[in-house]
Amino acid sequence: TKIYVTKILDLIDKHPIKGIAHITGGGFEENLERIIPKNIDINILKWEIPSIFKNLQKMGNIKDDEMYRVFNMGIGMVVISDSKIDDSELIFLGKTERGSGKVSIQK
Fold this sequence. Notes:
With 107 residues, the protein is α+β, with helices and mostly antiparallel strands.
């Protein structure tokens, strides 16, 4: 289990953070839809899925939607900021835009 406290406090100190979501059971959609305004969408781009999740999916014959909902494909915390955060421990996942409060993932 990764502990995020120090990293998150450092990010809050250095960047204009608009939202933070710990991605737990329910995956991206449930956890991110709770913290975004109803007029904002989040479009999550593809990222490199860690091999352990690819292997688990193959061995268990698990569908993509279930992998993203249950295992989050390696993402444990999402930070929303309106400025670029240059940090080797972070992965850029996507952008927000005007919309209806929905989260979508490119798979």
